[in-house]
From TrEMBL:
Top-level lineage group: Eukaryota
Protein known as: Lysosomal alpha-mannosidase
CDD domains according to UniProt: GH38N_AMII_LAM_like (cd10810)
InterPro entries from the UniProt entry: Glyco_hydro/deAcase_b/a-brl, Glyco_hydro_38_N, Glyco_hydro_38_N_sf, Glycosyl_Hydrlase_38
Domain Glycoside hydrolase family 38 N-terminal: 7-27, 86-284
Keywords noted in UniProt: Membrane, Transmembrane, Transmembrane helix
GO BP terms, alphabetized: mannose metabolic process
Transmembrane segments: 44-61
Lineage of source species: Eukaryota, Metazoa, Chordata, Cephalochordata, Leptocardii
SUPFAM superfamilies: Glycoside hydrolase/deacetylase
Record keyword Translocase present: no
Length: 290
């Protein structure tokens, strides 16, 4: 963190829908003949195999049934790897419920039940290091004050969401209200229902031109000057321009980039290798702003 600079926080994450187009098990193993053949288990092991050798890589997982599927997901070796990554801070669970529930149309009893199932499983399996610190609703449709109140009472430090009405987002961007303290129950619970809340700038996907997953079409960072396609200046230029544009819509000089999307990190090394290069070269050309 450097005062006087734009501080960009790169957040590697994978978004693994629970039962969207397939069953939970089919998503976990990549089964069925649909053209969409993601595998949550590949996403985890793609990251874990790299994390065991590189202490600097980390990732955020949501959707407990996808991350902790039955069967081999709880075998000794898999559990050992997950515990290692959690204790080292390289793997972090966010939200922690069975899923990201809808908000506006969901009864509070159902919300509490599904969060309880997921959080109890994390606690009994991983202990304190498996406790999520942030609520994460990047894909549900609709919002409710009660949802924020429940998250605050559950002890989350913050709440981030991706979807909101386009007019609401335009207003938040214009008046730099993308982050706020949501006072979800000012007349009844008071401060106990207050929660730091942020609307994500780019839905939940990476900045344009900077997606480095194997399924992305953006160019990697090619930093060998002997290469015909050497492109450090171009990659850094995109990073700098994107950060300077984004920070204009926030009240602090700290901004988040969501570096991931649906079922990404099945080949985690492509992501982390390019993010490392992007960080190194951008910092070496750091642009001070006023």
């Amino acid at each position: 963190v450097k005062p006087g600079y734009v501080n960009v926080h790169l957040v590697p994450h994978t978004h693994d829908d629970v039962g969207w187009l397939k069953t939970v098990d089919q998503y976990y193993y990549g089964g069925t003949s649909l053209s969409l053949i993601p595998s949550v288990s590949h996403s985890f092991f793609g990251f874990a195999s790299l994390a065991l050798f590189l202490c600097c890589v980390s990732i955020y997982f949501c959707h407990i049934p996808c991350t902790l599927n039955s069967g081999c997901a709880l075998c000794d070796e898999t559990l050992r790897i997950k515990l290692f990554c959690l204790s080292s801070g390289q793997l972090e669970f966010i939200n922690g419920g069975w899923c990201m529930n809808d908000e506006a149309s969901t009864h509070y009893n159902a919300i509490i039940d599904q969060m309880t199932v997921g959080l109890q499983f994390l606690n009994s399996t991983f202990g304190e290091c498996g406790r999520p610190l942030a609520a994460w609703h990047i894909d549900p449709f609709g919002h409710s004050r009660e949802q924020a109140s429940l998250f605050a009472q559950m002890g989350f430090d913050g709440f981030f969401f991706g979807r909101l009405d386009y007019q609401d987002k335009a207003n938040r961007l214009k008046y730099r209200n993308m982050e706020e303290i949501w006072r979800a129950s000012p007349d009844d619970l008071g401060a106990a229902a207050d929660l730091f809340t942020g609307a994500l700038y780019n839905h939940y996907v990476p900045p344009g031109g900077l997606c480095f997953d194997i399924g992305c079409k953006d160019q990697p960072v090619e930093d060998d000057m002997a290469l015909h396609d050497y492109n450090v200046a171009n990659r850094v230029g995109i990073a700098v321009n994107t950060s300077l544009d984004q920070v204009q819509h926030f009240q602090t000089d700290h901004i988040m980039w969501t570096m991931g999307s649906d079922f990404q990190y099945q080949a985690a090394h492509t992501w982390f290798k390019n993010m490392d290069k992007l960080i190194t070269h951008t910092n070496s050309m750091a642009v001070r702003y006023s």
